[in-house]
Amino acid sequence: MSRPIEAVIHSAALKHNYQLIKQRAPQARAFAVIKANAYGHGVERVVNTLNDADGFAILEFATAIAMRQAGVTQPILLLEGVFSVDELQQCAQHNIMLAIHEPRHLDWLRTTVLQAPVQIFLKLNTGMNRLGFVAENAPELVAQLRAMPNVASVTLMTHFATADEPAKGITQQWARFRAQSELLDCPCSLANSAAIFAYPEVHGDWVRPGIALYGSSPFAHQSAEQLGLLPAMSLRSRIIAVQNLEAGDTVGYGATFIADRPMRIGVVACGYADGYPRHAPTGTPIVVDGQVTRLLGRVSMDMLCVDLTELPNAQIDSVVELWGQSLSIDAVAQKAGTIAYELMCAIANRVSVQLD
Ligand SMILES: *Cc1c(COP(=O)(O)O)cnc(C)c1O
After folding, report:
1. Is the beta carbon of 101 within 6 A of some atom in ligand 1?
2. Ligand 1 pocket, residue 324 CB under 6 Å
3. Residue 168's pLDDT is what?
4. Which of 15, 18, 22, 35 is catalytic?
5. Quick check: CB of 211 below 6 Å from ligand 1?
6. Is the Cα dihedral 140, 178, 105, 86 positive or negative?
């Protein structure tokens, strides 16, 4: 047997989550957001599993092209657009939709010879202040784009900063967007996972679910389970050693955990070089043989330690779940002071991935 850590990707959960999102946004088409290697789940795996998705949204240009070459026929949207004229030409050649957010993108569209017209998502800055044109310039921009032979269609797009926080909400961004979209006869795309669940009024023509697809909640105040989402990834490993401690013995680097009584601990083949968060503190939940126990001491590069004192049957080769079907990734992320997005994206190359 090789080093026992593996990430299991649950294809039935991915399909279930996509369908649930479709039910929540029944009038819209849904881009499955597959940037960052499908949030660590593997682009190819997710695209093959969601082979009947309405479309896919991604940032990585080379992967978008590879998807077309692999025979994906659905709409593909480049969420951050293109970074050169050459990429723009290849988008036209491979029928890839692109966001534009910067004046130079307009110049490229105006001056480049393309094999075919491209479908544009005009990104409007309504308050996030990352990417996008000043929202109030939309009518002028749409007029310019419509006059360009290289432009096949224009969809208005924006992105919400606080759709996951009820106290902050989307009111201002939504008002700024709507003031423009009402003037223009364009399809619209606004909603990330949080907005899909919280604000049906912004579903528009295309929703853009990412995190919900992978079975994590976009909200701090509502669990994935409450939303009906199923975890799409389980990170599993095994116990590779057992140690018996006396009171006063310490565990791991920095000796930050000190036993206050005799204890039995297990060493798990999983560390921060596998993608487990180093900042997870003592007490972070971990499941061993189906029972919840806790992390002890510092996470090291290749190992971490768990409390087996109350699990007398646990031993070498006992199955450990770091997160997944028996333990919510959101609970682990919260303990580690981060979000599930970061944990999913951090799964390291050395972790083998299985599809079930
Ligand atoms: C990543 C991304 C999404 C998906 O966001 P989630 O919170 O994961 O649903 C949607 N739209 C844009 C523009 C994105 O970059």
Report:
1. no
2. no
3. 97
4. 35
5. yes
6. negative
User: Residues 15, 22, 199, 253: which is the catalytic one?
Assistant: 253
Q: What is the pLDDT of residues 110-142, one digit of tens each?
A: 999 999 999 999 999 999 999 999 999 999 999
Task: Identify the helix (H) or strand (E) that includes residue 153.
Answer: strand 151-157
User: Which ligand 1 atom is the nearest neighbour of the CA of 99?
Assistant: 13
- The closest of 307, 204, 197, 325 to 263, measured between CA atoms, is 307
H helices of 34-137, where?
A: 35-39, 43-49, 61-69, 85-94, 103-111
Query: What are the chain's domains?
Result: 11-216 (3.20.20.10), 233-355 (2.40.37.10)
Q: Residue length, the chain?
A: 356
Residues 20-79 pLDDT 10s: 999 999 999 999 999 999 999 999 999 999 999 999 999 999 999 999 999 999 999 999
pTM, entire model: 0.96
Task: Say yes or no: CB of residue 210 within 6 Å of ligand 1.
Answer: yes
Q: Ligand 1 pocket test: which of 192, 196, 203, 330 has the largest number of ligand atoms within 8 Å of its C-beta?
A: 192
Q: Is 35 an annotated catalytic residue?
A: yes
Q: Please tell me whether residue 175 adopts helix, strand or coil conformation.
A: helix
Q: How many CA atoms lie within 13 A of 12 on its CB side?
A: 2
Q: Are 344 and 214 in contact (CB under 8 A)?
A: yes
